[in-house]
């Protein structure tokens, strides 16, 4: 197998045997984010496909997620860091009912490496918790992540609850079940502030930078 194929296969197989040596080799050729967005994400897509076809069980997908997390942690120190002043404070959460956090945590790494102070509220965060944390932390923006189809619906509810609580800072939304169109036609109308869709973590950074300019 080529290096790229091996990297994808660690994720698919859920094994770390040889992973770190191959990640170090890949770092000689590619920037860390390209390794994540390329071979590692390709592995995750395959995991998603196999899971969908009932060829993998949740326990196996958890091992794949573990490999993805370990890889991101290994690559993180090699990522470019802007030593700029703090550009703003962003609160991140995976919405109520959803446990997927690899994408959200990647967003945290990218934003915090680029001058943002991040308050990461974790997973399955109900609107009430988000509102309490908003009042405590006073962030400049709120980032919501969700991968399940029902999480897209949950984002509508969350936006409504935030609005009712009088909150109108920009909301950044991302995750596999969302689209730009859904964000614009279904979530944004329920909220007083801006609701912006990010297709990936880098897009999230671009949007945050535009907001803070
Ligand atoms: Co789950 N899962 N999962 N899963 N899982 C999906 C999402 C699924 C598509 C798999 C499938 O069936 N093909 C499917 C969803 C179906 C649907 O609703 N459409 C699914 C399902 C069904 C489930 C369960 C219901 C399974 C079950 O129990 N029967 C269950 C849900 C439990 C719950 O949430 N209540 C479940 C559980 C799990 C595990 C716990 C085993 C594990 C998660 C572990 C973890 O996160 N700690 C898991 C995994 C790993 C996946 C897949 C395979 C991979 C997700 C991932 O981490 N990708 C996934 C299939 C897939 O996506 N191919 C799947 C890598 C990550 C970097 O990408 O999170 O998309 P992603 O983030 C991207 C962008 O979306 C974006 O940036 C990132 C890239 O830069 N982004 C943002 C994300 N959030 C953002 C926020 C932003 C900006 C950008 O700003 C705030």
UniProtKB/TrEMBL annotation:
Residues of the full protein shown: 603 to 815 of 1127
UniProt-recorded name of the protein: Methionine synthase
Family under the similarity heading: Belongs to the vitamin-B12 dependent methionine synthase family.
Origin species: Paenibacillus solanacearum
Role of this protein: Catalyzes the transfer of a methyl group from methyl-cobalamin to homocysteine, yielding enzyme-bound cob(I)alamin and methionine. Subsequently, remethylates the cofactor using methyltetrahydrofolate.
Entry note about domains: Modular enzyme with four functionally distinct domains. The isolated Hcy-binding domain catalyzes methyl transfer from free methylcobalamin to homocysteine. The Hcy-binding domain in association with the pterin-binding domain catalyzes the methylation of cob(I)alamin by methyltetrahydrofolate and the methylation of homocysteine. The B12-binding domain binds the cofactor. The AdoMet activation domain binds S-adenosyl-L-methionine. Under aerobic conditions cob(I)alamin can be converted to inactive cob(II)alamin.
Stretches assigned to the B12-binding N-terminal domain: 1-87
Boundaries of every B12-binding domain copy: 87-213
């Amino acid at each position: 197998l080529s290096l790229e194929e091996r990297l994808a296969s660690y994720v698919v197989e859920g094994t770390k045997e040889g992973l770190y040596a191959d990640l170090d080799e890949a770092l000689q050729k590619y920037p860390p984010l390209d390794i994540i967005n390329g071979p590692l994400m390709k592995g995750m897509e395959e995991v998603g496909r196999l899971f969908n076809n009932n060829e993998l069980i949740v326990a196996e997908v958890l091992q794949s997620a573990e490999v993805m997390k370990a890889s991101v942690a290994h690559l993180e120190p090699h990522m470019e860091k802007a030593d700029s002043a703090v550009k703003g404070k962003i609160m991140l959460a995976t919405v109520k009912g959803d446990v997927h956090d690899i994408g959200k945590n990647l967003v945290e790494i990218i934003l915090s490496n680029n001058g943002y102070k991040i308050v990461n509220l974790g997973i399955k965060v109900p609107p009430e918790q988000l509102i309490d944390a908003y009042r405590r932390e006073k962030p400049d923006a709120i980032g919501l992540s969700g991968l399940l189809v029902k999480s897209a619906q949950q984002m509508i509810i969350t936006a409504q609850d935030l609005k009712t609580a009088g909150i109108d800072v920009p909301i950044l939304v991302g995750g596999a079940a969302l689209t730009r169109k859904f964000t614009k036609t279904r979530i944004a109308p329920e909220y007083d502030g801006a609701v912006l869709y990010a297709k990936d973590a880098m897009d999230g950074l671009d949007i945050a930078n535009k907001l803070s300019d």
